Amino acid sequence: QVHLVESGGGVVQPGRSLTLSCAASGFTFSSFPMHWVRQAPGKGLEWVAVILYDGSNKYYADSVKGRFTISRDNSKDTLFLQMNSLRAEDTAVYYCARSYSSGWYFNFWGQGTLVTVSS
Amino acid sequence: SYELTQPPSLSVSPGQTASITCSGDNLGDRDASWYQQKPGQSPVLVIYQTSRRPSGIPERFSGSNSGNTATLTISGTQAMDEADYYCQTWDSSVVFGGGTKLTVL
User: Fold this and answer.
1) Euclidean distance between CA atoms B35 and B57, whole angstroms
2) With contact defined as beta carbons under 8 Å apart, do B33 and B47 qualify?
3) Is B92 strand, coil or helix?
4) Å from A83 to nearest chain B CA?
5) Residue A87 to residues A11, A13, A22, A83, A94: CA-CA distances in angstroms?
6) pLDDT tens digits, residue range A43-82?
7) How far apart are CA A25 and CA A27, in angstroms?
8) pLDDT over 90 (residue B91)
9) Which residue is closest to B100 within chain A, CA to CA?
10) B47-50 — which CB contacts under 8 Å span 24+ positions?
11) What share of chain A is helix, strand, coil (3-state, %, to 5)?
12) Concatenated DSSP letters for B7-63?
């Protein structure tokens, strides 16, 4: 069955960088768009970014554009999120999620990894 | 940027029908999806492409979308349906509604 496991979260100071990973299994990784979605404590869901099949196309939320970079390694079935210039408002649980090929709705989610930006 | 608006909360008695709305400009022209999230858990897709249910989602969950409003309907609401519900749509980016806390009491 489909499994998505995030890692790399932790406490980081404002202005610093952090990279999240998401290990995928149970499906043909390269055949699906992959997304990052975040949820600040006690708040709603916020889409962060998507990367399409071979990684050539990427789209970002305005709130992270220019600071975050999504990438994927299809040889290792792994999704990444490089986060630079982190701010307190980036504090959230970060989920990786797989969407359908036919549309960007998320039928599989990881368990999430918590990123806390604090001095 | 596109926005989706949901009521913050809704209360329903067990066995009754819960209707959660999601409003956006010409939302009926877009795909709408719905997620259920219980405390401490990842979201679960309950409706996609406006009215389709993923496998394993009970038939009491249904969806519709017309004009400026998408609606998630839970018929015969059960205590286990108490959760936060989020609507979502997409084009070149993904947008979530702010979420509705459904209380079953």
Assistant:
1) 11
2) yes
3) coil
4) 19
5) 12, 8, 22, 10, 14
6) 999 999 999 998 889 999 999 999 999 999 999 999 999 9
7) 6
8) no
9) A44
10) B47/B72, B48/A100, B48/A103, B48/A105, B48/A107, B49/A103, B49/A105
11) 5, 50, 45
12) -SEEEE-TTS-EEEEEE-TTGGGS--EEEEE-TTS--EEEEBTTTB--TT--TTEEE
Residues in B closer than 8 angstroms to A100, CB to CB, are 48
Q: Specify the pairing of strand A3-7 against strand A18-25.
A: antiparallel
DSSP state of A26: S
DSSP A41-92: TTS-EEEEEEE-TTSS-EEE-TTTTTTEEEEEETTTTEEEEEE-S--GGG-E
Answer whether residue A29 shows pLDDT above 90.
yes
Closest CA to A92 of A38, A28, A43: A38
* Amino acid in position B39: P
Provide the 3-class DSSP secondary structure of residue A38.
Answer: strand
In 10 A of CB B104, how many CB atoms?
Answer: 19
pLDDT of residue A102: 83
Quick one: tokens of B25? 């400009």
Using the beta-carbon criterion (under 8 Å), do A46 and B97 form an inter-chain contact? Answer: no
A11's tokens = 């406490």
B54 and A107 within 8 Å at the Cβ level: the answer is yes
Neighbours of B105 (CB within 10 A): 8
With b for 16 or more beta-carbon neighbours within 10 A and e for fewer, the B25-50 pattern comes to: eebeebbbbbbbbeeeebbbbbbbeb
